[in-house]
Amino acid sequence: MNIYTYSDGHRGGPFTRNELRKELLRGKLTPSSLVWHSGLPEWVRLRDLATVEKQLEGSEATYMMPPLPAVREKRVRVVRLERLEKPSLGNRILRLLGVAR
Question: pTM (2 decimals)?
């Protein structure tokens, strides 16, 4: 059985089940990686593959690879840091004495 994968924006495969296990052990795939093979109606998470296959036993096979699900873009939050001037030792002493603000 040829199993195809999609993880971190990269397609992979075809893999056998043993090759898929090796990729998982190497860390190239995660339980959240998407997988598909003929007989599945859509891409599923690797961790759900056995459950979905069991539910589909005896059903009609799907031979055409479905499109990949839409990937949500990660939003990056940009934080602008202002450079804070560190007061000189003299100014810190004057502040402690209450002479300077």
Answer: 0.62
The answer for residues whose C-beta is within 8 angstroms of residue 44's C-beta and 6 or more apart is: 34, 35, 36, 52
Interval 25-81: pLDDT, tens: 999 999 999 999 888 888 999 999 888 877 777 776 666 777 887 766 556 666 665
Length of the chain: 101
Q: Which of 65, 68, 66 is nearest to 2 (CA)?
A: 65
Query: Three-state SS for 97?
Result: helix
Ordered by where they begin, the domains of the chain are 3-55 (3.30.1490)
CB 45 within 8 Å of CB 60 = no
